[in-house]
Amino acid sequence: MSYAYAKQEHVQVRVARIFNTFGPRMHMSDGRVVSNFILQSLQDQPITVFGAGKQTRSFQYVSDLVNGLVMLMNSNISTPVNLGNPEEHSILEFATIIKNLVGCKSDIVHVKEQEDDPQRRKPDITKAMGMGWQPKVPMIEGLNRTIEYFRQELFQSSHNQKMILRPDDKLV
């Protein structure tokens, strides 16, 4: 669709194929694996892994994505460019990493595998590297930043709920 628009309007377009991205300010209940695992760990809930957890994913920190998008927009590349971290982790390994970083005692539980769940997602970032881009933030560092953000949001949320006055509450 982008290329049809570019042809019709005689403009240049850039197409980024964005892989799993995480970081502070991501929505805590967006249903993605990063937010699910962090939230479950911080609340000492069971960490749910679909199937055996052997499916792989790669995860990039949000600032790496933003830098990649800026570089792509400033480039002359007219074909799709993958922006992601080629470092692969199994979902089970990823759950264990987050559990350990949070320091929780949550159990990892396996639930029925989703039918349409891809077994592997690993970007080929050759084109991105050709424009001088590659991820810089180590996954553990990015996860620690994201966990701290979630921890603060949960604290703030619980604090705000305690401060809410209902119509029948009496002020002393």
Automatic annotation (TrEMBL):
<keyword id="KW-0456">Lyase</keyword>
<dbReference type="GO" id="GO:0070403">
    <property type="term" value="F:NAD+ binding"/>
</dbReference>
<feature type="domain" description="NAD-dependent epimerase/dehydratase">
    <location>
        <begin position="3"/>
        <end position="82"/>
    </location>
</feature>
<keyword id="KW-0520">NAD</keyword>
<dbReference type="InterPro" id="IPR036291">
    <property type="entry name" value="NAD(P)-bd_dom_sf"/>
</dbReference>
<dbReference type="GO" id="GO:0042732">
    <property type="term" value="P:D-xylose metabolic process"/>
</dbReference>
<keyword id="KW-0210">Decarboxylase</keyword>
<dbReference type="InterPro" id="IPR044516">
    <property type="entry name" value="UXS-like"/>
</dbReference>
<dbReference type="GO" id="GO:0016831">
    <property type="term" value="F:carboxy-lyase activity"/>
</dbReference>
<dbReference type="InterPro" id="IPR001509">
    <property type="entry name" value="Epimerase_deHydtase"/>
</dbReference>
<protein>
    <submittedName>
        <fullName>UDP-glucuronic acid decarboxylase 1-like</fullName>
    </submittedName>
</protein>
<dbReference type="Pfam" id="PF01370">
    <property type="entry name" value="Epimerase"/>
</dbReference>
